[in-house]
TrEMBL record:
A biological-process GO annotation: proteolysis
Protein's name in the database: tripeptidyl-peptidase II
Keywords in alphabetical order: Calcium, Glycoprotein, Hydrolase, Metal-binding, Protease, Secreted, Serine protease, Signal, Virulence, Zymogen
EC number in record: 3.4.14.10
GO molecular function ontology, one term from the record: metal ion binding
Lineage per the UniProt record: Eukaryota, Fungi, Dikarya, Ascomycota, Pezizomycotina
Length: 603
């Protein structure tokens, strides 16, 4: 009991004992934590901790204009992408920044460090880290995972202009897969061995259904075109090759295995008895679309057990902070080692991600666009929001968007449900970012939505919960998520799944087919597709099928993904985003029509 009281007092007071002191600049501060985050103990002063200093990137103010130039179809620079060396040369931190930060680390007695150009990893003790950062690292339980974190940290004044962030520090996120995995049931798929096979797409979603829904059944890709697709796996997930083979055989798909790239100590678990639902659905649904095109899985280190070293973060950061390590790795790969389309299906409530961390990650995603890589992210499975309460200490009711889907340089994929016609899925995450401003490419679409698709009463009421509608609006596009479920294979058995995690690899596969057509026509790949996507319009021949039925709901006191009560959350009666004509926060601009999109992309 005494220890519990001491820990409670420390949670409230220890950070203030290291509050901004003379000569230090506060870099990040958590005013309040999610109710599920619990302080569980104090680390030993001598406990090792691995930290990363993200150096200030030069010319980052040029990123958006450069991305706009290579991504906007009527730009003279459209499709003129940069390679890894050019990106590094353009944005690399200054020599002064590197010199000053390395000097600071050496003065602090750090001998175990590694300089990676834009960031520096180093190992020290908890005691020394607290002194260096005016912080108080403590052990927290975050969704069942022990994490070493601090409520705030500072850096010396003279270094503030040279450092973007230090991590892991104030990130208490609970990164989760955007997948809904119902219990396994005895549904057997209908083998697609000839064109006369009968489908029942109103009951279950199989590859033949996707071909009909997104109009790619008659498209014939060329595995030698150079078009490649990939997906990210986190949280100790690995796609099982044997399960993919079972899926492909069941539906008469080409037998096309995926390659695997390991990041920061990631492990490829190929135990066929393990149920890796998220990674399996990524590989199987992507395969259902791209057929013979090469597929790559990128596995970033996940849950412990874990053996740390200097270049791989310690256990405390290893579980739920995949984004920096992931995109830093990808950006340093040569163009021929990267797929031109990468899908990801993991996210956090935006408010749980420190803003400086989110901005840094988002900028890296923007650089992926400069490389000509289309990065897609499932928008999330919590609708308008789940906690629906600010975590700044004021506990204001607000809609809670999902990161990284709120990054303006990513293509966020929302969800639909039903079949012929599809309508907005009730749990499709969408809304307006509280971190990032409205993107240039969506200005007209969002302005029309706010002016013509929301009643004045609804607009006035929701404005207070959605940051005045000033933020980056998401999702951008949508595809089937749930109701009916998708069939897939997990641990050697047929199972059902769904969520925006299923929608994202489907859309990614379709972009891979568009790239296939463009490469065969001697054109560059699509790259960052949002400027093109928002310029297509909707209707016959545009390549976009508008979704005008259904709605995304949320803020009911129940997490729509898990079905669990949100402890300490706010309830906002009537919170929802209706699917409307044009762009809306439930389904974006609508759903893709592959053959029409290929025609538009080749025009």
């Amino acid at each position: 009991m005494l220890l519990a009281r001491m820990l409670k007092v420390c949670l409230l007071a220890c950070a203030s004992s290291y509050a901004v002191v003379n000569g230090a600049t506060l870099m990040s501060k958590m005013t309040a934590l999610h109710p599920s985050v619990k302080l569980v103990g104090l680390p030993e002063d001598s406990q090792p901790i691995t930290l990363q200093v993200g150096l200030k990137l030069q010319r980052i103010g040029e990123l958006q204009e450069r991305l706009k130039a290579v991504s906007t179809p009527d730009s003279p620079d459209y499709g003129r992408y940069m390679d890894a060396d050019a990106i590094n040369k353009l944005f690399t931190p200054s020599d002064a920044s590197r010199t000053k930060v390395l000097g600071w680390l050496k003065e602090a007695g750090i001998t175990d460090m590694a300089d990676h150009g834009s960031y520096i990893n180093f190992v020290t003790t908890v005691s020394n880290a607290n002194k260096m950062l005016s912080s108080s690292f403590q052990n927290f339980d975050v969704a069942g995972v022990k994490k070493l974190r601090t409520l705030e940290y500072s850096v010396p004044d003279e270094l503030a202009e040279h450092i973007d962030l230090v991590s892991p520090t104030t990130f208490f996120g609970r990164t989760k897969a955007h997948a809904v995995l119902p219990p396994k049931r005895e549904y057997m798929p209908y083998p697609r061995q000839n064109s006369n096979t009968t489908l029942n797409c109103a009951r279950l979603i199989e590859p033949g259904c996707l071909e009909q829904m997104y109009n790619y059944g008659s498209y014939r890709e060329d595995a030698a075109s150079g078009s490649r697709v990939g997906f990210g796996s986190f949280l100790n997930q690995s796609a099982i090759q044997k399960d993919l083979t079972l899926y492909q055989k069941a539906y008469g798909l080409p037998l096309n295995n995926f390659s695997v790239v390991l990041i920061n100590g990631g492990e490829d678990h190929q135990d066929p008895t393990r149920d890796f639902g998220e990674a399996n659905l990524d590989s199987q649904f992507m395969s259902a679309v791209v057929k013979t095109l090469p597929i790559t899985e990128f596995i970033t280190a996940g849950k412990p057990p874990f053996v740390p070293n200097l270049d791989i973060p310690d256990e405390a950061s290893n579980t739920n902070e995949p984004y920096l390590e992931y995109y830093q790795f990808l950006l340093n790969q040569t163009s021929d080692a990267l797929p031109q389309v990468i899908s990801n299906s993991y996210g956090d409530d935006e408010q749980t991600v420190p803003k400086e961390y989110a901005i840094r990650v988002c900028n890296l995603i923007g650089m992926m666009g400069l490389r000509g890589i289309t990065v897609l992210e499932s928008s999330g499975d919590t609708g308008v929001g789940a906690p629906c309460q600010s975590n700044d200490g004021r506990r204001r009711a607000e809609f809670t968007p999902q990161f990284p889907g709120t990054c303006p340089y990513i293509t966020a994929v929302g969800g639909t449900q039903s079949y012929a016609p599809e309508v907005a899925w009730a749990a499709s995450s969408g809304g307006f970012s509280n971190y990032f401003g409205r993107a240039w490419y969506q200005e007209a679409a969002v302005t029309d939505y706010l002016a013509s698709r929301l009643s004045p009463e609804t607009k006035e009421r929701f404005s207070q919960y959605a940051g005045g509608f000033r933020g980056r609006a998401f999702p951008d596009v949508a595809a089937h998520s749930l109701s009916p479920n998708y069939l897939f294979y997990a641990a050697g058995s047929v199972a059902m799944t769904g969520g925006t995690s299923a929608a994202a690899p489907v859309v990614a596969g379709l972009i891979g087919l568009i790239n296939d057509a463009r490469l065969r026509a001697g054109k560059p790949v699509m790259g960052f597709i949002n400027p093109w996507l928002y310029g297509l319009g909707s209707g016959n021949g545009t390549g976009i099928t508008d979704v005008t039925g259904g709605a995304a709901i949320g803020c009911t006191g129940v997490n729509l993904q898990t079905g669990q009560t949100v402890v300490g959350g706010s309830v906002i009666p009537g919170a929802m985003w209706n699917a409307t004509v044009g762009w809306d926060p439930a389904t974006g601009v609508g759903m893709p029509d592959l053959l029409a999109l290929v025609k538009r992309a080749l025009a």
